[in-house]
Amino acid sequence: MSDQPTSFRRSFGLLDATMIVAGSMIGSGIFLVSADITRNVGSAGWLVLIWMITGLLTLTAALSYGELSAMFPHAGGQYVYLKEAFNRLTGFLFGWSFFTVIQAGSIAAVGVAFAKFSAYIFPVLSEKNIVADLGFITISAAQLTSILLIVLLTFINTLGVKEGKLIQTGFTLAKIAALLALILFGCFAADKTIWDANWQTGFSLQQMTAQGGITHLSAYAGAGFAALGAIAGSMVGSLFSSDSWNNVTFIAGEIKRPERNIGRSLFLGTLIVTVIYVATNLVYLGVLSLREIAFAENERVGVAAAVKIFGARGTYIIAGLLMVSTFGCNNGLILSGARVCYTMAKDGVFFKQLATLNKNAVPGKALWIQCIWASLLCLSGRYGQLLDYVIFVVLIFYILTIAGIFRLRRTRPDLPRPYKAFGYPVLPLLYIVSASVICVALLVYKPLYTWPGLCIVLLGIPVYYLVWKKEQ
User: Fold this and answer.
1) Does residue 219 surpass a pLDDT of 60?
2) Which of 61, 122, 129, 297 is deepest in the core (most CB within 10 A)?
3) CA end-to-end span of the chain
């Protein structure tokens, strides 16, 4: 037992931390969700604007988190910030939602996305290939592949920080390079006729139907509320595609000079991804008509664009890119997520057996329990719905965390702040107001996305008082 590490090793530099941010953000969303956005807003201007608004919100939040990460450079990130700014219950509710749905659900969804796109190259991995029928549940090759991917990456990350870091940095650099190549070739393949036709829609807000119909949202009474609902609904996809940027805060205990490098990595990582996302959508508008974007087969806009850019082989090129992208994305989610479980266990609000590091100075038990739960979500077939539910919950906790900056400045003004939130108080307040407006709009116009997620959070209250509170 004397050889058992009791603290994390600081092994991540600025580049590694930035790759955690960018790699955890870039998964499969950028290749899919532009279809839903285009159906909801119906114009080139609003398609680009939705991605730009999402990017600005993400950058604002990331810059604000820099202050909190410098104040509390410990493993657990957002869980620690909420606990310190408010109380243990608030921190627990985030950790509860994070473990049950947000992180494990993301790992499951990205794993299945990896399997689905792998099936382009290896058809045997298709979700149509049923490998086991147990009566009460059927298991497809895609589900089995996603579970094996999660198990493999979990095992690699139990071997130590170095192994997980090499995969994360290497795969993220590879997919950024591949995306930049896609954007470059897309610029050469762009058709001016298609581009001009798409931009004739300008910034008019309208909804598109598969039958060819278009509803102009400014053409009837109550248009303002309808427009707000369309914009908020559109942003569910773009916000999810830009989420997980905060994963780097969960590994603060393993980052060199965390008081400086976490804030810098948050800014650099979110900026890189925002620029890539906007540029990718401009490429879509250059090679595909709005209707081709909105109604791409199975919403695979990236595949449709790649076929236009590279011809028939484009399907295989984009499939390979997505395999690299989702592989690296899942590694970042798995690596960072277990640190929250570990920190909660150390605080006595999660299974105490998880509050230990293995001989490689990583939370091995937390990694494996995360692996088991994510694998079960792969089998449930409901992970997609869970992810839709939690984007509202994710925004709520982002709002609370950034509000924590204001609270901590008032209640604990003497705490050292090596870095202060950029644009305080204007930009953090602007984020809180903007995200709150989106949340209210989602509550009203997208109840299926919001109320179930809110119930998951509230369920954590009796769990906290009945199970964990009595142990403190």
Assistant:
1) no
2) 61
3) 26
Amino acid at 8: F
Residue 245 tokens, joined? 């940027």
Q: In this structure, is residue 217 part of a structural domain?
A: no
Burial (CB count within 10 angstroms: exposed 0-12, middle 13-18, buried 19+), residue 385:
middle
Task: Tell me the per-residue pLDDT of 355-398, one tens digit each, with 9 for 90 and over.
Answer: 899 898 889 999 999 999 999 988 876 655 666 667 788 889 99
Closest CA to 195 of 292, 286, 294: 286
pLDDT at 434: 86
Domain that holds residue 22: 14-203+224-468
393 occurs within a structural domain: yes
Q: What is the DSSP string of 143-175?
A: HHHHHHHHHHHHHHHHT-HHHHHHHHHHHHHHH
State how far the Cα of 101 lies from the Cα of 456, in Å rounded to an integer. 9
Task: Note the pTM of the prediction, 2 decimals.
Answer: 0.86
CB count in 10 Å sphere of residue 162: 11
Pick from 194-198, 284-288, 328-332: least confident:
328-332
Does residue 62 sit in helix, strand or coil? helix
- Tokens 């998951």 locate to 456
Whether residue 283 has pLDDT greater than 60: yes
Q: Cβ(300)–Cβ(53) under 8 Å?
A: no
Number of domains the chain is built from: 1
Alpha carbon of residue 363 to chain centroid: 22
**CA-CA distance, 135 to 413, in Å (whole number)?**
60
Token output for 23: 């790699």
Q: Distance of CA 357 to CAs 370, 371, 372, Å?
A: 15, 16, 18
